[in-house]
Amino acid sequence: MTGTPGLVPAAGAGSPSGPLAAIPAGYKFGFLFVAGIGVYLLSDLVAQIVVFAVAVLAVLLTRVPVISLLRMTTGLLIIVGVVFVTTGLKTSWAAATTACLRLLTLCLFAYAISLTTRFSEMLALFEAALRPTRRLGLNPEQMSLALAMTVRFIPEIRNRYLEIREAQFARGLQNSPVAVIVPLIVRTLEAAQEISAAIDARCYDSEPPTDRRAVR
Amino acid sequence: MVQTRSATTQNTVLVAVFAAVIAALGIVPPITVGVTPVPITLQTLGVMLAGALLGAWRGMLSALIVVVLALAGLPILAGGRGGFGVFLGPTGGYLLGWIFGAFVVGLLVQRWAIRQDNVVVRHLCVGAAAIIGGIGVVYAFGIPWTSVSTGLSLGTSFTGSLVFVPGDLLKAVVATLIAVRVHSGYSRLLDA
């Protein structure tokens, strides 16, 4: 991955490759949106199976090993299995097949898109989508700052949690969520105060230039 | 009220670090609480806490950030899931529900629950807020979504969701204990 060092790649492992990775994220999400409506308009079983086959192909084109793909979709497959049986018993097996094919097709397309789009590309897309919210009085720069800061702090807070849990293990409190999370929250609040002081001290100005008179 | 720059920065940082707390609680090993035999993940506890500790708007923004990052493909949902597939899948509605759930928890805690003078009453009210927002509102989005996404009837997906109620009630209790304790140390947390 380039651009954002130390970042976790999107849902799969490794950097996205395959022919789908070259398509801009905006087009892929546009496609997903259309597909989301499209699968509900298709009522012919053959057409549904064809679209489902395309979705399977799209996932295979991500070049993610089949084992990781299966691990990723286990939960989904279990739910789809349950849905298939309950719908089949309650209504008809044809309706059950249609419902499950629709769900699987959409989810597979979505996985294919997630797996072939870099995380930084996704964030850029979201930021572009957020830009018009300035007219509503929101501040897209602050939102980008918050998104970036969250990503930066997830591993930090996870480690802090594990540290505190280990410390409480010595007191026999490792399974008491209160004893673990209260110190975590208190430390996090203290860190938040230090960070915002540091941001202000460096005059990091995320406000749009036109709003400065309110501050000075 | 004219917000000063430092208040804006502080709010942004609080929202961001709390989003990180919600995300981190989803990827730490599950914890065995008290009497339940099944280990539970703490992610929804994080959602309740964000509302109860930061208040309605900031709590909601924290939950929103987690959902946005998960959609973008960061594997931060319980069990290392993430990506658009989760959102379109049967459980996607619960994710959407987090955003509004955190808001409702925050609103109730901020405006009503934390202002109770009696300690016992305060605990009960914060608990009620966590249950209404963190369970009621979240399920109100999750159950219909499951039903639309899978084609199951509303009744069936309601029955299916009941499996998670005991765990979530336990989390509401834990969230209450944590929130009341943290607020008694940081009484100005909800002022801003």
TrEMBL record, chain B:
It is a multi-pass membrane protein. It is found in: Cell membrane. One of its GO terms (cellular component) is plasma membrane. GO terms for molecular function: biotin transmembrane transporter activity. The keyword Hydrolase does not apply. The keyword Cell membrane applies. The chain crosses the membrane at residues 12-32, 38-57, 64-88, 94-114, 126-146, 158-180. Keywords: Cell membrane, Membrane, Transmembrane, Transmembrane helix, Transport. Belongs to the BioY family. PANTHER family: BIOTIN TRANSPORTER BIOY (PTHR34295), BIOTIN TRANSPORTER BIOY-RELATED (PTHR34295:SF4). This is Biotin transporter. It comes from Actinoplanes siamensis.
